[in-house]
Amino acid sequence: MKSEIQKKIEESEYRKYLSKFDKYTGLWKLDDAKWVKNRNETWEAIKERELKEYPKTPKSEIGQKERFYLRAKPRKTDRELYVYQRITLSPFEGVEDIREIFFNEHVSQRRNLHEQLLTYASRMYRAVPNEFHRVELISEALYCSEFLAMKEEMGYDKRLDFVVTRPRDFIIKFAWEATQFLKISKLDNIHDLKSRNNQHWSGNERSYVEVSIEYFLGNLEYLIRNANGSKSDSINELAINGIKELCSEIENYSPDFDAHNRDAFVESARTKILGHDLISDIRES
Fold first, then answer.
1. Do 69 and 44 meet the contact criterion of CB atoms below 8 Å apart?
2. H helix runs in the chain, sequence order
3. 242: which of 15, 19, 160, 209 lies 20 to 30 Å off by Cα?
4. Contact, 21 vs 72, CB < 8 A?
5. C-beta contacts of 53-57 below 8 A and 24+ residues apart
6. Integer Cα distance of 129 and 79 in angstroms
7. How far apart are CA 65 and CA 87, in angstroms?
8. CB 280, CB 240: distance < 8 Å
9. Residue 258 in contact with residue 266, Cβ under 8 Å?
């Protein structure tokens, strides 16, 4: 039996958790039957793929995300979702709300949020391409020129450090993600991913790389032109090899089936990525 003190502490912690997103609960249009129906159908598609690929996922973990996604009403026994999960699971309609949450995070936690958010949202919504506008909204909010290589003062010594994904890390992640995005245009690769990794792809999924080419190139320009010479702020072999592999995939893109959004990405990438002077220098190095 829990003591009264324990119950009061748990209640207090629960209220603190609710207060972190209380002002956004109006985004859940629970009195709109059509909205609720669409929300339920979207969640079922997300859950179906997640359980196919990760069948051992505890029901409690699925339930926690489901309760937040559908009603923004966690149970007292639910663990607190990470901020990047709450943003992804929320039906935000504007960039300012997302930015407000970002800046409400302690300065020391912002980079972790930024590192996780776009990838997590893209992977969750790949099961429902019609919901890709959620990923676009996140990209517009936090992965744009205003946030490029953003730094703020941290610690007792007020040193400047990144509060967004480090430029080199974003370059590596983008190059890998874009390469995989192009590889699923081949049926053999789709079958291989299913047999080896239990990943279920139709080939028509969307990816955050579609809406972050400029951010990728901006990070590359920053890294090469403004690097201070430290190992963490310099382009490395992993980044260079990733860029070269991506460029090869773009050049040799020959899909087994049509996918309009991926085709559009390749068309844009051939101009913006392959045509960029810094990319040309890297490929010739």
1. no
2. 4-19, 33-53, 59-71, 83-89, 95-104, 110-125, 133-142, 167-183, 187-197, 213-226, 237-251, 260-272, 277-284
3. 160
4. yes
5. 53/198, 53/199, 53/200
6. 29
7. 12
8. no
9. no
Query: From the CB of residue 111, how many other CB atoms can be counted at a distance below 10 Å?
Result: 21
d(CA 211, CA 57) in angstroms, rounded, equals 30
Give the DSSP letter of residue 145: G
Question: Quick one: which of 82, 77, 96, 164 has its CA closest to 124?
Answer: 82
Mean pLDDT for the chain? 93
Neighbour tally for 285: CB within 10 Å: 8
Name the β-bridge partners of 159.
154
The Cα-based distances of 242 to 79, 174, 203, 218, 232 in angstroms read: 37, 9, 22, 16, 17
Over residues 66-95, the pLDDT tens digits come to 999 999 999 998 999 999 999 999 999 899
238 token code pair: 């992993």
- Find tokens 């009061």 and name the residue: 8
Q: Where are the domains of the chain?
A: 1-145+152-158, 166-285
Q: What is the mean pLDDT of residues 42-52?
A: 95
Nearest in space to 167 (alpha carbons), one of 224, 229, 108, 110: 224
Give the pair of three-digit tokens for residue 59: 């029901």
What tokens does 195 get? 């047999």
The tokens describing 285, both together, are 């190095």
